[in-house]
Amino acid sequence: MLLIECSKIKKSFGHRLILDIDDLKIYSEDRVGIVGVNGAGKTTLLNILSKRMEPDEGWVRLYGKAGFISQLDEPDRKYISEEAAAKFGIRPLWNGKMSGGEKTRFKLAQALEEPNMMIFADEPTVNVDMEGIELVEGKFADYQGALIIISHDRSLLDKLCTQIIEIENSKIKIYKGNYSDYRAQKMRERERAQFEYEEYIKEKKRLKTVMIKIKQKAKGMRKTPKRMGNSEARLHRLGPQRAMAGLERAVENVKKRIEHLEVKEKPKIPPAIKMDLLDSGKLHSKIIVEGENLNKAFGEKVIFKQAAFKIYNSSKVALIGPNGSGKSTLIKMIIDGDGAIKTAQGVKIGYFSQELEILREDQSIIESVMESSIYPENFARLILARLLFREDTVYKKISVLSGGERVKVSFAKILLADNNMLILDEPTNYLDINSLEVVEEALREYDRTLLFVSHDRRFVENVADQIMSIENYQIRMFSGPLSEYLAKKNKSSDSGAEEIEKQIILLKNRLSEVIGRLSMPSKEDDISALDREYYQILRELKNLEKK
């Protein structure tokens, strides 16, 4: 069933054309992911399709009620049902002091409990922990209606989407399938464009060679052979005039063929980032950071209780855990040199935080990056170009940059500085997918020690070789990627569940026996003891069934 259609849409901000869309239709069974670089117009498109914003030209029609989930906007209603609140583990009344994850759950619960035929979602997993992301993913997967979503979470787009809309240079292009399908199609398009460009250059070169040979042949025919008298020379010149005219026509034909060749532009293939790090700052200690007997509390809220951890040289460690578990606290303890944490001699930490304190408003991008860079400017420009700061844009002032642009500059600055350990607190928030993948590529190439916090499952899987998880006031270390850690954790949970099931079966069998003896007691039975055991078994069963 058709739910959204639009035609001849145009939207500009100032002199810049953001969207120029001929037509677009979205049906009830569609799950659409919208992608594009920061500033491409993703949120603008979402707002126009949901009729929260009017286009400058064209029209949009919605056929059915729509819900909208955004990180920035407050919900339409300040309450949800008790049932919905229980499903999402939140309170039924909106509170501005709720965490980002709680606010997202509230908005999602509200959108799903209303009779919406379509849901628009703008970055619904930003500031949400992995458990919350899986909840959002599961609820969206069960939703029976159209879904139009902007997200930089590639795993989410893979699980949910049946098509991807890419915005580039104000135009849209629709790709069937999920995000991985889209990437594969983009790769084939790039390979095809490269092949066509090479064939175009090859044919142009061949035709130019043919034209040169014809001209050389014509030039040779014009020359009068030596030892030839004037009369003979005159006859020689008159003889091949017809042939010369033919050669000239041939030259013109070749010229026209060159002019009529379909011009193929050279595709822009971004260069790979190869971090040729200087050896001067390389550490030789086996353990870079070590914590023992960590205790931390804020009032009555306990964060760590006799916790311990070790971070080894050149490891890439992902620090994970639910929101509020103490990830940022642990990073701050390392940065501030807490007494319970030892750092190897010679460690120079580059720290990225969401506050972006390392940037100065009055500097340009290139000034800010080069201020602390130990690499030449041409390499710094390569990194910045991959992050979409090309040519004269590197002279833009920090003061005029968007949030996503500031994140990218901060990352480039930390990567190029004289550090031998990076600590990154949520480096992927506010990045478009293209920039996120550049950051991912650079960190995979980084051969020093890395500790980072991220809720982006694909990013953690692709970068980390160790997992540091905060659980029950303790810090658990796991050697291996996220997928292996989750598999082991799920297996452990399954084993625990199987053990509980066995205990429940035994208790139920014993309960049946006790009930039978209470119903028909023998002379040897102690009725009071059986009665106490009956209630004890009921309590134990209740506790086990909760688990």
Account of the protein in words:
- This protein is 44% helix and 22% strand.
- With 547 residues, the protein is α/β, with parallel strands linked by helices.
- It has four domains: 176 residues, 3-Layer(aba) Sandwich (Rossmann fold); 63 residues; 202 residues, 3-Layer(aba) Sandwich (Rossmann fold), CATH 3.40.50; 59 residues.
- Strands 5-6-7-3-8-9 form a six-stranded mixed β-sheet, sandwiched between helices. A six-stranded mixed β-sheet has the order 14-15-16-12-17-18, with helices on both faces. A three-stranded antiparallel β-sheet has the order 2-1-4, with helices on one face.
- The longest helix is centred in the middle third of the chain and has 44 residues.
Low-confidence stretches: none
CATH H-level superfamily title of the largest domain: P-loop containing nucleotide triphosphate hydrolases
Query: Counting H and I runs of at least 4 residues, what is the number of helices?
Result: 16
CATH fold topology of the largest domain: Rossmann fold
Tell me, what's the shape?
A: globular
Described by strand count, sense and barrel closure, the largest sheet is: 6 strands, mixed
Rg (CA only): 34 Å
Q: Give the class-level CATH name of the largest domain.
A: Alpha Beta
Helix and strand content put the structural class at alpha/beta
Percent strand:
15-25%
Number of strands: 18
Query: Percentage of helical residues?
Result: 40-55%
CATH architecture of the largest domain: 3-Layer(aba) Sandwich
Strand order of the largest sheet: 5-6-7-3-8-9
